[in-house]
Amino acid sequence: MDVTDTSFEEIEPSFLRETDHIDPFSQNNEPKRSKTNKIRPEALQSRPYTLQGLLAAPLSTASSGKTAFSDDIKTQPSWLDDTDRRNSKLGFETTDEEEEEEEEDEEFLDDFEEFRNKKTDFDEAIKTRFGTFSRHSPDNLHHLSEEFNNYLNLGSTSKPQESQHASNTLRQPKSMMDLKPRIGFQYEKMKNNSRESRLKNSISYGNLRNSSRNPISVRFKKSMPNMVSNIIEEDHDSGEENNDSVIKRRNPSDYYLSKFGEDREHPDDNDFIFDSSMIQPNFVPKHTRGNLPMKLSPSIYNIEQHNNLLTPQLHKRTNRNRSNFDQLENFRESNTSTSSRIPSGNLNLNQRAATYRMRTIKQQIDHNTPVKKGDMYYNPQSMKWEGNEHILKKFDEIDSSSTNPLLIKKNKTDLEKIENSKIRSKSSRPPEVVGDMMFDEKNLRWVSIHEEPPDPFAGIDDIVQGQDTDMSKSPFLRSKSQTKSDILSRSLAVNPNLRKYHSFGGIGNKYKTKSNYASEENRNTSDKLMSTYTIGSKLLEHSYHEENRWNKKVGAWFLLNNKFNTTGNEGDDHLNNVSVASMDTNDYMYEIRKMVLNSTNN
Amino acid sequence: MSSIEKFISKPPLIVYSSLAQLRYLVLSEGIPATGDKHEQRLRAYIWSILSRTSMEHSTSIYMTLVNQGPPSSTIYKKIKNDTGRTFQTNTKFKDIVPEDALTRCLSCFAWQTQHLYEEDHSKKNISTYVQGMNVLLAPLLYSCPSEPMAFQLFSNLCYSQIPTYITPNLTGVRNGAKLLDLCLKIIDPKLSKFLNDNLLTAEIYGMPSILTLSGCNKPLDHVCRLWDFMFAYGFHMNILFIVAMLVTIRSRILRSDSPMNLMKDLPEFDSDEIIKLGVGFLPKIPSKTYSLLVRHLTDPDLFIR
Known about the structure:
- The complex is a heterodimer.
- By secondary structure, chain A is mainly α.
- Helix content of chain A is 60%, strand content 3%.
- Chain A starts with 7 loop residues before the first helix and ends with a helix.
- Chain B has 19 helices and no strands.
- In chain B, helix 14 runs parallel beside helix 18 (271-281).
- At the A-B interface, helix 24, helix 25, helix 26, helix 27 and helix 28 of A face helix 2, helix 3, helix 4, helix 7 and helix 9 of B.
C-alpha cells in the first residue's frame, strides 16, 4: 500500500491542486491553525510558492503522494500574500491551458485535479456534486454536458458521483492508483460524519502519513535527523494502529483538523519553529526535559551528560531504574491527557500498548549515537564501552595482597588434594617438589631436580637482527625503513613479470645465504652490507615519484617503443629485451658525419 | 623553460624525426650544466629519450635487484675496491652520490648480468663487473634524479651502447685504442709520431678514457655535456673527443719530457671546445674508419690490427 513512489505525476498534481483551491479551506481552518501552529508567514513568503509545493510533496510524504495534497492546502492559504496567490493562480492557468493541448496523460491530471477539488473542500464538493445531480436545472445543463464530455474523452462511462474512485482507478496513471481510492473512501466517511470509521480508515491513512502527521516526529525530523528518523520508523513498525489515537491524545487540534481529512503537519515542515520540548519523545519524563543546546550537531555535543538526549534504549533503562513515584507520574500524565480528550478505557490500554511498543526501539549504533546502558556508556570515538574501569581494580588488589600468583596457588592446593600420596616434601615454603620435578617459583615452571634442563635454543644460531625484522614485519605496518620483503612484494606486485626469474621465496633464500655467509665472515661487514642493500622508504618513495614524473613528462616518447626502440630495452620485460644493438640500428651514429660533410661540401 | 625542455615535454608526432630534432637541439643549444634538481632531471630525461631507455618499472626492477643483496664476494670486493675511489677529490660528486649508491647500482648490474647469462648463455661475453664501470656509472648517478633511473640508463648504456667494452677481455676497448691511434695519425700525424717514438700507444695511455667514455676526465660537469652529445650522436665520438683532448694539449705533450705523466691525468677540458674540435675532425675521417668507429662499440667479432 505504501508505495514510496515520488514520481513526477505525484508531484505535479499536488502543485496544481494547492494553487487552485486555497481560499475556501483556508477560511475554514485559519482560526484554528493560527492558534495551534507557530508558523511565521515570512518564511513562507520567502520561498516561491510553487516551488514550495513541489519541494514539499516529495520531501514530507515519502510514504505516499496523498499527504502532499492535504498538507499543501493547509500550508499555503492564509499566509500567502496577494502576489503569491496571484502567482499561484497564474501558474495554474498556464498549466490549465497547456493541459488542454496536451495528450491523454495530461487530461488525466486535469480530471484528477477536478476531482481533487471536490475532495479538498468537502463542503463545496458535496454541494457541487450532489447539488448538481439534485437540481438538474437547465442552467446547469451546459456545465453537466461539458463535464460529461470530459469524462467521455477520458474513456469513462461511469457516472461521476456513483463510482468516483472506480472510474479513477481505471483512469489514473499507476502512481495515482493508491491515492484515488483512499480519497473516495475518505469522502464517504466525511459524508457519514463518523469518527470511528475515520479512525479505522486511518489504519492505512495514518500509515501513509505518520511521519508528517505526528507533529512531534516532524519536529524531530528537522532537528535530529539521525536519532529521530529511527524512532519514527520504529513507530510505524510497532504502533501502527495506535498511532493515530496516540497522536490525537497528544494534540487536541489534530482531532478537529481531522474532520477535514487533513492535518497541519506541512506547515510544520515548511516553516518550523524549534521548540526544545517538542524534541522529547513522549516516553521521556517531563522532569528530564530541560534546556538543551540542540543547535549543536550530535557529533560535537557531549551527549552523555544529557540523559534525555541519549538513545531510547537508555531512556528505557532509566525509566526502569527510576523510583516508583516517577513511574506513576509518567502514567498519570498520559492518563490525564487521554481522559481529557477521549474518555475511553480501551484507548488507555491502547496507549499503554503503544508506549510499551515504543520502548522496544532498536537503536543503530553509529559514530553519532552514544549509547548508555546502566553505568556503561558507549564511546563512539574510541568505539569502546566505558564506565566499568573500576572493576579492574579488583585485580590490582589481588596482586598486591598475595605474593604468589593466583593461578599457581590454586594449582598447588589442587595438587595437594589430588596427588597427596605422591608428594614427598610438603614444606609450605618453596621449592615445592612433586615427584622428580621441582617448582621454580622464580620462573614459574617445573624443573627436574636431578639435572639442569637442556637449553631449548642450543642448536639454533642467533638470528641476524636485520634479517629477523625483515621476515617478521607485518606488511600492514610500515616501518621507518622499508623492509626488503616489503620492497620485494611491492616490486613484484608492480611488475609481475619479475616472478619469472625470481620467486619470492627464492630471493629470500638467496638473500639469507648471502647474509649468513657475510655474518660468518664478519658481523660488522654484514651490518654494513645490510645498510648498503637496504633502501629506506623515503628513497623508495622518491624513486617512485621520480619515475612517475618521468612518465608524465616524457613518457609520450616511449609510446611507440616497440617500433623505434631498436637499441634498448622495454620497461616491463626489461631483462629479456636487453639486446646487443645490431649494425642497422646505428643509423643515428652516421647522422653527425653526414651533417658535417654536407655543411663542408656546401 | 628552455626550448629543449619545451620540446621534450610535447609528445612527439613522429618519434624518429623528433629524435633527430632533439639531437640537433642538443648540439645547437646544449643542456644546461647540472646546477639544480630541475636541470638534473632535464638531462636525465633527454638521455633516456636519446638512448631509448624507458624508465617504466625502473624502480621495481631496481628494488628487486637490490633486494638480492651483495653479489658474490669476489665481485663485491672488486666493486667495493673501486667505489671508494670514485672521484675521491670531487666533493660535489661525493655530496650528490653516496658510495652506497654506486655499490648498489654495480651490484644490481652484476646480478642482472648473471640472470641474463642464466637465461641466455650466448651472452656470456658481458662481464658482471669490469674495472672502470664505477666511473662509467658516476656521471649517470650524478645526473639522474633517482638511483633506479641511473641504473636503468647504465644498464642500457652497457648492454646496448657499448657492449664490447665490458667483455672480460675488453675487446671493444682494445679496438677503440687501435682506432684512437689510427684517428690521431690521421688528424695529427706529428703528435702521433711523437707518441709512437716514445712508445706510447693508445693502449697504454688511452684505455681509461676509452672505457669510461671520457668519464675519468675532469671536470665532471663538462663530462656530462660531452655525454649529452654522445647520447645524441653516438659514443663512438668518444674516440675523436680523446683525440681532440690530446690535440688541445699537444704543445705541452710535445714539450714534455715525460708525456705519459701528462696523458695519464689529462688536464681539465672544456666540453664545447672538445665537441667543436671533435666534430671538426669528421670530414678528415675516411668513411671506412668512421664505420669502424661506429662498429667497434657493438660488434663483438670486429678485430682491428
